[in-house]
Specification:
alpha+beta; 132 residues
């Protein structure tokens, strides 16, 4: 799934992980820092569906399981993404994570079935509490 963080004027330069963490913490990606711009930043994703083409989404909300310190200690940063489809007014929930690779850099991945039921409940409870 190709992902990019851009402002409404098309300026990039912001990492997806930093954007996800910022969205989880503040609920907003803020505005473009490019001189003279100030446009709203967005986290955009394209999902390919075999035999059906692609769909474009915007990351609307993020819930993290761990704090920054816990994620660094675990080498693993699981999250729930709430995606809003751009063409149709529908939402999708996506289990997502970053993990430290063998070089110590954060690497992105789609969630394998490694989440315990307790961890899923914690993520779910956090997501539901934000919606209330």
């Amino acid at each position: 799934m190709p992902s990019v963080v851009v402002c409404d004027q098309g300026h990039g330069g912001f990492s997806c992980r930093e954007a996800a963490i910022l969205l989880a913490k503040s609920g907003s990606l803020g505005s473009c820092q490019r001189k003279g711009c100030g446009a709203r930043r967005r986290y955009l994703l394209t999902q390919e569906y075999p035999g059906k083409g692609s769909a474009k989404f915007e990351l609307e909300r993020v819930v993290r399981l761990y704090t920054d310190e816990e994620a660094a200690g675990e080498g693993y940063d699981p999250m729930l993404f709430l995606l809003r489809r751009q063409v149709a007014d529908e939402c999708r929930i996506w289990l997502f994570y970053w993990t430290l690779n063998r070089h110590g850099a954060w690497h992105v991945g789609q969630f394998p079935p490694l989440l315990s039921l307790d961890e899923f409940r914690r993520l779910n409870d956090a997501l539901l509490s934000e919606w209330r």
